[in-house]
Amino acid sequence: MTDALAGIRVVDFTTTIAGPHCTRMMADLGADVIKIESPEGDLMRSRPPLRNGASALFAHLNAGKKSVVLDLKKPAASDAARRLAATADIVVENYRPGVTRRLGIDYGTLKALKPDLIYCAISGYGQDGPGADRPAYAPVVHAATGYDLAHLTYQQDKREKPDFNGIFVADFMAGAYAFGGIMAALAQKRATGVGQMVDLAMYDAMLGLLMSEFQRAQFPIELPSRPMYGPVKAKGGYIIIATASERTFGDLARAAGHPEWLEDPRFAKYSDRRENWGQFMDLFEGWSGTVPINELISILEKHSVPCSPYRTVKEALEDPQAKHRGIMEMVRDKGGLCGVPNPPFRLSASDTRARDFTAALGEHTQAVLRAVGLSDAEIAAVG
C-alpha cells in the first residue's frame, strides 16, 4: 500500500504540542519529516512518563520523524537550516511572530530560496495585529477565548472559580487545523505550481470550536436549568445519553417504558424539552436510578439510544471496537515500546499509521546535512 505523502519533505521547526501534532500526522502519511531541535532538544523529551530516560509524550508527538540538531543562534546553523529548507516542500514553525525573521528562516527568506514552498506558521494569536506578540500556551488560550468560562456555565453546582483543564485542547485543535491548511495549500500547489503561507492562530481555532457560545455571544438566549447532555443517574453511578432528535427522544421514552412522555406537552417538541429538561430528568432518573449501569446501557442500546458509561482512557483503549480500528500503534524508542494513537481517519488506498521509530536527539544530523551538501567541518559548526 502506498503512502499519501510519499516523496514530500517537511522541515519541522516546531516544539511542544501543536506543531509536532501537525507534523506527526504528515509523518503518519509517509512524509519525510525532519525535526530541527536545539542542542537541548524539544522540552517534551523531558516530560514524564519516562522509560529509561525516554519520554512517552515525546514519542506520542514525534514518532516517525528524523532529528537534526541545529543551534539556530549560530550563523552556520541558520545557514544550514536555509539550505535544508530549500530542499523541502513544506516548512512548519511555531515560534512567536518575529522570531523566525531574526533567525533568518522566515517565509520571505525561504520563499526566495524555494518559490513554491508551503510555509505554515502556528502561533497563539496570528502573525500580525495588535495582539500578535502575546505569548501563548494552550491553557492561556482556553481562558482568553472564553472556553474555560463557557465550560463553567454548564456545571450544575454553579462554581465561581474556573476549573483546571489538563487537556490541551487548543494545541490539538491548532495542530489539526494546521494540517488541514497545509493539505489545502498542497492541493492548490499541485494544481497551480504556486506555494503559499499558512497562518494558523490557536485563538482562532478555539473560537471556531465554540459553536453554541459563538452564536450566543451575538444572539443571547437563556440556558436550560439543567444541561441536556449531562450525567444521568443510574444505580451505582452515572451514564451519558444524547437525544438530539425527535426520533431518539421517542426511543428513550420507549426504552424507559413511558411512551406517554411523548404526549406530555412539556416534552412533545425539542423547544418544550429544552425549557423543561430538568423536570423530564427528574422523571427519567426515577426509573434510570433503579437500574444498574450495565443493564441500563444494554436497554438503551437495544432501543438505539446514544449512550455510554463514563470510562477511563485505559478502559476506552480496551474496547473491542478500539482494537478493531487499530487505534493504538506500538512505536520504539530507547525506552522500548510505547503505544501512540494512529490518525483518526483511514484511507482505503494508502497507509495511515504511526511509524515505528522515535529518533534520539540529533540522530540524523550528519546524514541529513551531508545529503544537502554540508562538509564535516560545516556540520561540526551547527550544534
The N- to C-terminal Cα distance equals 38 Å
Shape: elongated
Content-based structural category? alpha/beta
Write down the CATH class of the largest domain: Alpha Beta
Range of strand content: 15-25%
Number of strands: 13
CATH topology (fold) name of the largest domain: Rossmann fold
- Could you say how many structural domains there are in total? 2
The CATH superfamily name of the largest domain is: Crotonobetainyl-coa:carnitine coa-transferase, domain 1
State the helicity in percent bands.
40-55%
User: How large is the count of helical segments?
Assistant: 18
Sheet with the most strands, sense and barrel status: 6 strands, parallel
**What is the mean predicted local confidence, pLDDT?**
96
Strand order of the largest sheet: 5-2-1-6-7-8
Uncertain stretches: none
The assigned CATH architecture of the largest domain is 3-Layer(aba) Sandwich
Radius of gyration: 25 Å
State the gist of this model.
With 383 residues, this protein is an alpha/beta fold. The protein contains 18 helices and 13 strands.
